[in-house]
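Run log, item B.
One chain of 278 residues. Sequence copied directly from the ordering sheet:
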Amino acid sequence: MSWITRCPACSTTYKVVPDQLKIAQGWLRCGQCQQAFDSTGLVVNWPDAHPDALDQALQPAGQRLRIDDFLKQEDRSPSAPVVTAVAAFEEALSTFKPQALSPLQDKARPDAEQAIVQPDAQAGKRPPRSWLTAVAAFLLLLALGLQWLWIERHVLASMDPVLGQGLTAVCRRVGCEILPLQIRDGVLIESSSLTPHDGGFQLRWSVRNVTAQALQMPALELTLLDAQDKALVRRVLQVTQQGAPSFLVPGQTWEGQLHLVPEADLVPAGYRLFSFYP
């Protein structure tokens, strides 16, 4: 008995052998379009007619056509290359079966779960790093604060006497110095006078700190003038020569006096006195 099948791609009809189908497990390749297809359900049994019966059937019906004349026959006998190709094709198809993908999916799940759990584990390790960052930030702020305190120590000491005493005590230990501020026009000469006294002149003056901070005592410049307001002699009086304190607290007033003995032929008609920081 022969079997007939048809290519579903190009509709070419073939006569196949049962042994060939068993070896290839129903898979065939069309010799016309080279399309591989599963012949399951596409094979039809075709009984072989007896030669005598065939001759008798052909004699009365001369115009009857043989079906073999309309079928494209091809040698489909099994061969080693065909079996090898079909086996390779079957092996390639088996890699696309759903059962082959499940192990890969199962194997990939632990990695996915690990990828999801890993951020939580890393999140648990962040507190130590955050703690170190906080400590480093605190130390940096402390260093900046100490640096600012060192630069502005003179200003801070002049603003508050108690704070100034504390900063002065600290500076004695570390070897630094607290100096009063020097503000121009911060110490004003409120009054002054120059009068003859004991063969010379007596200079009297008073200064006042008009700021809200402790200021360093300024030096004084005394200029004796003639009748045309021209300078006859100029003299600078340092703080130590004045006998004045080194600084004045806010609002403090201090009065000083000096006895001056000019040259015998020097007769001043006036004077000029002003304060400055050397």
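Observations after the first pass:
- Residues 57-65, 96-108 have pLDDT under 50 and may be disordered.
- The radius of gyration is 60 Å.
Flagged for discussion on Thursday.
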